[in-house]
Here is the input.
Amino acid sequence: MKTYLFSPSPLFTLVFLLLFLTILPGCTPKSMRLSPITDQQSEYHPGQFVWCDLLTSDIDTARKFYLGLFDWTFAEQEDYTVILNRGVPIGGMVATEFKGKSNAYWISYLSVENVDQAAERVINNGGTITMGPGKMINRGTFAAISDPGGAALVLLRSDSGDPDTSNPQSGDWLWHELWTDDMETAKLFYSRLADYSITPVNETVQDGAVDNDQYHILSKDDTWSGGMTLIPFANLPSQWVPAVRVDDLSEVISKVKELGGRIIVDPSHPLGNGTVALIEDPAGAILMIEAWKPEAEAKK
Here is the structure.
């Protein structure tokens, strides 16, 4: 097994949007050691998304944007920037040279029990290993993959355990959503990769046939992990899109443009359903923001 000193150095193939973005190994530091993703040291939550890295051409602008939008703070580790929400690490940023129109992209990390076994499942079910399996110093064992539709993802077995994602606070990652143009292939791939149960939302039947192109929930051990839907816009690749929980959606949206970002889908749009907005940061990274209250809070 190889050992890597810097986490975001793998070669990611991001079809269409990044036009085969290459993160060149020669551009990475030679002696970087990253902090663990959590200090819990024991708990693991396979099937849950536990981290996100922002690959961006402009770290300074990204810091200003996300500080102003979510009040995130940052800690520098040589050329790697750790993202903290309320003092707790939730992700990172790395300066990246891009080829293509977009100059930024969020990459989600999925916790797995065994990276080598998960990598075999990727290959056996039509996916691609773009780098690894290998070792990231202080971070854990990883494999960078793309699913059969080209959506990029990092599989991780953290050395320190996984963060508790069961009660996301404002500014935390709330959700991870796969945009795909082939729902049936995606369902089969992820059910085999992570042993997900995949169920449609409000299943409908037309002429005796189930509508398989609607929204689906991915869950493991009765815990929701993410969702999948058909790509909502033309000329976009299959990709995982993270969502950030916010308390006041209107307040956050009002800051997006003045901070240099763009609102792609407003909550008033049918896709927003009154609680979700899709935005783009100044360099082009897409993410969702969602006003969400746990069931217990909603009943108060």
Summary: DSSP finds five helices and 19 strands in the chain. Helices lie at 59-70, 115-124, 183-194, 249-256, 295-298.
